[in-house]
Write a structure and sequence with these properties.
The structure is a homodimer of 188-residue chains.
Chain A lengths: L2 H11 L4 H10 L10 H13 L3 E6 L7 E6 L1 H11 L7 E3 L1 H7 L6 H25 L6 H34 L15
Antiparallel strand pairs in A: 1-2
Helix pairs in contact in A: 1-4, 2-3, 6-7
The structure holds a DNA duplex (30 and 30 nucleotides).
Chain lengths: 188, 188
Amino acid sequence: MDVRTVCLGLLSEADRSGYEIKKLLEDGPLGNFVEASFGAIYPALTRLTEDGLVEFRTEVQDGRPDKKTYSLTPAGRETFRKALAEPISPDRFRSDFLFVLWFAETLEADYLSEILDHRIAEFEAKIARIKSEHDRPEGPGPAFVAGQAIAIITAAKTYLEENRHLIEADSRTRIKTPRSFDATVLGD
Amino acid sequence: MDVRTVCLGLLSEADRSGYEIKKLLEDGPLGNFVEASFGAIYPALTRLTEDGLVEFRTEVQDGRPDKKTYSLTPAGRETFRKALAEPISPDRFRSDFLFVLWFAETLEADYLSEILDHRIAEFEAKIARIKSEHDRPEGPGPAFVAGQAIAIITAAKTYLEENRHLIEADSRTRIKTPRSFDATVLGD
DNA sequence: ACCCCCTATATCGGACCAACATAGGTTAGA
DNA sequence: TCTAACCTATGTTGGTCCGATATAGGGGGT
């Protein structure tokens, strides 16, 4: 989903500035699945304006930089409607953490335990944040998406907690029981 | 995790060509969390060679293009060891699918059901593939990573199956019960 | 007084992806 | 038998995007 389409989508909900779009993607539940940097958003809005899909008015603010508030044109609304019907590309889950764990056998036991603890704590914090954000429901779509975020992160956390002994034990006793592992890792 | 580090990691397991690295990331369990294109891998290997972290030998093959098989130098092995101790950047889950569902209220009921069915089927296929790949265990790290992949995808699939009625029902009856949603979405 | 953070727009270097180019070999179907 | 599709294998190119930086005034904390 390119940044232009993301901008169209957020502008279909309400008129917004580039800065507001960025904040929504940083702090909002949608930000768990969609990201974009300033370096992508501002050029995207410029190009959308050139193409006649959005327009903006400059709002002079007191003690703050001027704000460019963008709104969808009818052409922009139609373009977004069509974009939603396009084939959807697959989800992409990227994890440097799991890349490191791939090499668990080569890590020191203390370091391994430390990064596992740290990651579990991060997951807990993230779950708490999404839940607190969701005291104010915004409709079935957003609620559903937030729920899916919680389901996935909870599963990841639970997996780490329940299976960490498989790699932690190994890194301490790998001379004794090399390459053995509990087959139940893979479930059934 | 930049592509150069990924290459060092895979070369720390065995000597490999750029093409083999790409195939491992496409088909192997690590590919669920780490990706890289040819357009990134080949320049990365060139640069690693320039920096003295890897070296290669050209293998002339019968009826096939020559293969450049890369291997780590001691400096490369040391660089990778240090890279594993660097701070780990957060996981990133990107989903165009959930972006579309964010706008579930604006989608036609048939189309919504169709993409939900499709996504659930994709998850099932992926789970089956990872499990079959894992008939041959490769050590605790890889097994653990594959297990986490299955845990996450299973959770995502289960969530879709158990909660899809919340957005499907709504898109059919949204005039009657606008913006209502089942609070149990967010679990407890 | 000093520093850090917030709002707000914008640009730049570099990393990266998707697609294409090249080239011979194999497999499968009409 | 032709041919279309796919596999191995390396590489380049256009364009997208991220992370950092620039600019600039205001508010809040110590």
